[in-house]
Amino acid sequence: MDWMKKISTDKMLLGVVSLIVVGMSFIYLGKGKIGTEEITPTKSAITSVESPNTKIGVLEKELESKLQTNILMMEGVGKVQVSVNFLTGLKNEYVRNNNVTKRTNKETDKTGGTRETTEVTENNQVVMPSGSAQPVIAIEDRPEIGGVLVIAEGARDPKVREGIHTAVQTLLSIPSSRITVVPMGGA
């Protein structure tokens, strides 16, 4: 009878993990907009495919690697796999050459009336270094983290799971609701 409870618990846990993976897939697939200065990642939560060699893909991989390295050093964690999803893309603010020219004309007609006109010309060009096709970047904002999934062998222990959750929340300064820690399954 005790083994039936274990099988039932394992099946329920597998179901919960499956729902999380499917939910994360919908989140990933729903974020496919590409703007003029924003890149949004498109990666599947089900397969472990290498991210393309884009800036956003490289940032995701670096962050996943750093988190994994830190989590692996924690006691009782065991094997770990980390997935990070960005909610927004990289945001760049470019250096601009702002020139404003103001010209005022005063005209007097034959009857003694005067008319004054002001012409303002604004030139707001992005600064391009000589011989380069890339503009000069003034500020580069990191993308906002949409969610983190941590799969760890030791996550069956509530203390280890809570420790991982707290560590990720502290390292990334993101709300608790954006972090999921689940035990690693399989044989």
From TrEMBL:
<protein>
    <recommendedName>
        <fullName>Stage III sporulation protein AG</fullName>
    </recommendedName>
</protein>
<keyword id="KW-0812">Transmembrane</keyword>
<feature type="transmembrane region" description="Helical">
    <location>
        <begin position="12"/>
        <end position="30"/>
    </location>
</feature>
<keyword id="KW-1133">Transmembrane helix</keyword>
<keyword id="KW-0472">Membrane</keyword>
